[in-house]
């Protein structure tokens, strides 16, 4: 396996955990919103946005996990292109997560 520095691995695992927690929060909010308001016109647009958030997060998690596995399977070392792709994926996942959390918080504020 390409030896990734411990801070990089810690960052990846922390990022994965934060994504999972955000997917859970998104699913929970969607469930509560649907249970309380049903399929009203206003609620439907928010439910759709929550579904979009969840799909974006799921995609980033999956991509990050796949690339990490590819790096782990690389012998004797991972290529520079593979490592660059992994680092870029981390950056994009972090940005997507931050944007998703902001959107989730906005939806929560709108319905409280």
Provide a short characterization of the protein structure.
With 112 residues, the chain is mostly helical. Helix content is 87%, strand content 0%.
Description:
This protein has 112 residues and is an all-alpha fold. The chain has helices spanning 6-37, 41-73, 80-111. The mean pLDDT is 93.
Mind sketching the topology for me?
Elements: H1 6-37, H2 41-73, H3 80-111
Helix pairs in contact: 1-2, 1-3, 2-3
Describe the structure using short key phrases.
112 residues; mainly alpha; 3 helices
Estimate the helix proportion, in percent: over 70%
Low-confidence stretches: none
From the helix content, strand content and strand pairing, which structural class follows?
A: mainly alpha
Run of helices and strands: HHH
Q: Work out the number of β strands.
A: 0
Strand-residue fraction?
A: under 5%
Overall, the morphology is elongated
The averaged pLDDT comes out at 93
Rounded Rg: 17 Å
- Count helical runs: 3
Distance between the termini: 48 Å
Quick one: biggest sheet? none
This entry's quaternary arrangement is: single chain
């Amino acid at each position: 396996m390409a030896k990734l520095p411990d801070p990089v691995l810690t960052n990846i695992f922390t990022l994965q955990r934060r994504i999972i927690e955000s997917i859970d929060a998104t699913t929970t909010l969607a469930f509560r919103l649907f249970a309380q308001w049903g399929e009203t016109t206003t609620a439907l647009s928010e439910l759709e946005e929550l579904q979009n958030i969840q799909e974006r997060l799921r995609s980033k998690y999956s991509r990050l996990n796949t690339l990490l596995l590819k790096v782990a399977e690389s012998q004797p070392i991972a290529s520079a292109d593979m490592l660059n792709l992994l680092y870029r994926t981390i950056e994009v996942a972090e940005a997507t997560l931050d944007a998703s959390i902001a959107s989730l918080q906005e939806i929560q504020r709108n319905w409280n």
